[in-house]
Design a protein that fits this description.
Number of domains: 1
Radius of gyration: 15 Å
CATH superfamily: Gcn5-related N-acetyltransferase (GNAT)
CATH topology: Aminopeptidase
Shape: globular
Structural class: alpha+beta
Strand content: 25-35%
Number of strands: 5
Largest sheet: 5 strands, mixed
Number of helices: 4
CATH class: Alpha Beta
CATH architecture: 3-Layer(aba) Sandwich
Length: 147
């Protein structure tokens, strides 16, 4: 039995190890002050950023997903970007990732979004198998320019 719900301020201690695991997976380090800012945004009602967590039947946080709502020049409705998805190694292959994505889809529908999208690294073969099963690839390639 798994429960997915919005993360609360009291979930910070359980969220942070998964957030760190996500960063290790992508071989990046996000400064602590940025992590603090991000967490505060999740808990600010005026922000369009959301954090959901998957909890196992013992109440242990085993997966996280972060979503951001924004406007689009292509749609009249809001767009929802699923920015981060991470599932504890012990839960991989059990449907936790798919359940978290579906929870974001529900959140997007509830907030009047017309599209949900996300990206992953081309080498993330395990996640891509899931994504190819539950969504369609847009064909777009992301570029970044340092500022």
């Amino acid at each position: 039995m798994m429960t997915i719900r919005p993360l609360q301020p009291s979930d910070r201690a359980a969220w942070e190890p998964l957030w760190q695991g996500y960063q290790r997976f992508y071989e990046t380090v996000i400064p602590p002050e940025t992590t603090d800012l991000t967490w505060s945004r999740f808990n600010e009602p005026t922000e369009d950023m959301h954090a959901l967590g998957a909890f196992d039947d013992t109440g242990h946080l085993v997966g996280i997903v972060h979503a951001i709502f924004h406007r689009s020049t292509w749609l009249a409705k809001w767009t929802c970007y699923l920015q981060d998805l991470y599932v504890d190694d012990s839960q991989r292959g059990l449907g936790t990732g798919a359940a978290l994505i579906e929870a974001v889809a529900d959140l997007a529908r509830e907030n009047g979004a017309g599209r949900l999208y996300w990206m992953t690294h081309e080498t993330n073969a395990t996640a891509r198998k899931l994504y190819d099963r539950i969504a369609s690839r847009s064909g777009f390639i992301q570029y970044r320019k340092p500022l």
